[in-house]
């Protein structure tokens, strides 16, 4: 294993490698209770507590991780990022070369924001949004028949869909009466068809979200929805909103009822707290609850500046992830919320983490010789328990788990069955899974033996509210950024998605019989895929 940190010394890496040859054995008799470990290995940031006694760490490993964090200057880099340093770059190579200022979108609750100019721009956009939402609420902005808008369709993909959608799903109980949101992302026409069938277009605002204003799926779906509006005798300019980058091809306020901006220093997958999430969330939750959500994220951004790994949840999560991935050799990471409301959150984190840290070159353009981002996946518990937990407990692959749980349910409507409420059952199951993974259970029957010693951590808060959701989002954003700093990679670009887009365009050309020179392989691949299959068009 090479030195993991461009800035740190090789000695801390060697020290952690040595410790990784005999990591803490959670399955040893009494290991989990030893030295007050369960109570001691708890860390708090904002509304969240992280229980990490079920990780394969001890004081020496934690000291080593602290040293790694210090030598890599993780918190210093985080602060510099927040203050506007150009961190989206690869030295000496053509690259996006941008600041990374998603945190500026929520740095609204202090007189001295870290990046005043960026926060001032967000404030201006929020003021415009507040006015717009007020007009919609008061009935000053209505449809052609003088009726109020009740529904929003959010058209976007990737970062312009996943984060906002996950948050909307998470905060459904907090919606304004009578309001709902639908999402169209996939270029699969069935996605749009299904969503459009569920709405009364005349009372629908269509929020078209694309930072670049060039994404094929979003532009296609925009046209599809616009077409439908026209077919229904509705004027798209009275129904459509745009959220886009300033100067993008979609930056054409004439076409839209309102246009809102996000800026090139906000990465798509980090954009949920920019206008990308704010327009939809403001419509659904109302402006005040939107601010609560942003405040939750802001609280975490400040706590993430604490250099003590034992007192900084996202920093600790990042380093425990590095420990499991780089030193103990786990390839993937399961994020398992015990909250149905968070059912889309793992999908959002998949993009946020894998698009950020799925990199093979470092910030100097050199090829890395250590593992970078893990494969991230997950589903809510307890559903997952009846699906893939078999592998988590007895499979040959060790998959570290990040459990997320809440003490109280959102609706508070629950039933006591067999002496416990459903919420209690949910929580008991979460904790049971973390314990079972850690301590296991020996059995003479090998098929029933649980080896244990499988690491997990538990992230807990009282209740999933707009503010806790903001905090949860910011914890994960900061965790991902910290890990990118450890690996000395640029977590803020996504060149790896470009090739597929180019080849898809060439294949589309082939479908139309226009084979570009040099595109023969695409043509032959298309033919092999479609020959012999009945391709009657149904319109
Ligand atoms: O908001 P846009 O520019 O339409 O991009 C959507 C998504 O596409 C990507 O660029 C990847 O193709 C993501 O990074 C981004 O979140």
CATH class of the largest domain: Alpha Beta
Largest sheet: 6 strands, mixed
Question: Which consecutive residue ranges, at least 5 long each, have pLDDT under 50?
Answer: none
- Return the CATH topology of the largest domain: Rossmann fold
CATH architecture descriptor name of the largest domain: 3-Layer(aba) Sandwich
Gross morphology is: globular
Q: Helix/strand/pairing class, anyone?
A: alpha/beta
- Amount of helix: 40-55%
Oligomer classification: single chain
Sheet-strand content, in percent, reads: 5-15%
Distance between the termini: 56 Å
Strand order of the largest sheet: 1-2-15-12-10-11
Give the averaged pLDDT, no decimals: 95
What is the CA-based Rg, rounded? 24 Å
Total tally of structural domains: 3
Number of helices: 17
What is the CATH H-level superfamily of the largest domain? Glucose-6-phosphate isomerase like protein, domain 1
Features:
539 residues, alpha/beta, Rossmann fold, 3 domains, six-stranded mixed beta sheet, five-stranded parallel beta sheet, 41% helix, binds 6-O-phosphono-beta-D-fructofuranose, gluconeogenesis, glycolysis
């Amino acid at each position: 294993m090479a030195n993991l940190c461009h800035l740190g010394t090789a000695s801390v890496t060697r020290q952690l490698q040595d410790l990784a040859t005999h990591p803490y054995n959670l399955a040893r008799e009494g290991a989990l209770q030893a030295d007050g470990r369960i109570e001691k290995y708890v860390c708090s940031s904002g509304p969240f507590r992280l229980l990490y006694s079920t990780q394969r760490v001890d004081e020496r490993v934690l000291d080593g991780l602290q040293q790694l964090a210090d030598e890599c200057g993780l918190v210093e880099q985080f602060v510099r990022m927040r203050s506007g340093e150009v961190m989206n770059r690869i030295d000496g190579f053509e690259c996006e070369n941008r600041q990374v200022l998603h945190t500026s979108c929520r740095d609204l609750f202090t007189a001295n924001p870290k990046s005043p100019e960026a926060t001032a721009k967000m404030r201006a956009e929020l003021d415009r949004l507040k006015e717009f939402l007020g007009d919609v609420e008061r009935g000053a902005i209505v449809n052609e028949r003088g009726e109020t808008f009740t529904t929003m369709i959010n058209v976007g993909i990737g970062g312009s869909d996943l984060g906002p959608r996950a948050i909307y799903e998470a905060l459904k109980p907090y919606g304004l009466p009578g309001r709902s949101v639908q999402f169209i992302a996939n270029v699969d026409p069935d996605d749009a068809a299904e969503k459009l069938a569920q709405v009364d277009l005349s009372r629908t605002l269509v929020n078209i979200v694309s930072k670049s204003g060039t994404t094929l799926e979003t532009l296609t779906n925009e046209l599809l929805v616009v077409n439908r509006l026209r077919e229904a005798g509705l004027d798209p300019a009275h129904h459509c909103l745009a959220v886009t980058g300033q100067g993008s091809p979609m930056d054409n306020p004439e076409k839209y009822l309102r246009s809102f901006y996000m800026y090139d220093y906000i990465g798509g997958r980090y954009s949920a707290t920019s206008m990308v999430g704010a327009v939809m969330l403001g419509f659904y939750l109302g402006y005040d609850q939107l601010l609560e959500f942003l405040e939750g994220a802001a609280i975490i951004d400040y706590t993430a500046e604490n250099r003590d790994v034992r007192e900084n949840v996202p920093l600790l999560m990042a380093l425990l992830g590095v420990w499991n991935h780089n030193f103990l050799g786990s390839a993937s990471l399961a994020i398992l919320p015990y909250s149905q409301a968070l059912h889309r959150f793992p999908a959002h984190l998949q993009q946020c983490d894998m698009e950020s840290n799925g990199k093979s070159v470092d910030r100097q353009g050199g090829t890395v010789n250590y593992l970078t981002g893990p494969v991230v996946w997950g589903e809510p518990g307890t559903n997952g328990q009846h699906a893939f937990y078999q592998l988590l407990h007895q499979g040959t692959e060790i998959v570290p788990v990040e459990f997320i749980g809440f003490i109280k349910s959102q609706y508070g409507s629950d039933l006591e069955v067999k002496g416990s409420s459903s919420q209690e059952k949910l929580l008991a199951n979460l904790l049971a899974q973390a314990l079972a993974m850690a301590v296991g259970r020996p059995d003479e029957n090998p098929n029933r033996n649980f080896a244990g010693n499988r690491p997990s951590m538990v992230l807990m808060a009282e209740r999933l509210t707009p503010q806790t959701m903001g905090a949860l989002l910011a914890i994960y954003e900061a965790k991902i950024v910290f890990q990118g700093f450890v690996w000395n990679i640029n977590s803020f670009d996504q060149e790896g998605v470009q090739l597929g887009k180019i080849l898809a365009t060439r294949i589309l050309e082939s479908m139309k019989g226009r084979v570009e020179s040099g595109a023969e392989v695409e043509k032959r691949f298309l033919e092999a895929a479609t020959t012999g299959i009945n391709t009657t068009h149904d319109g």
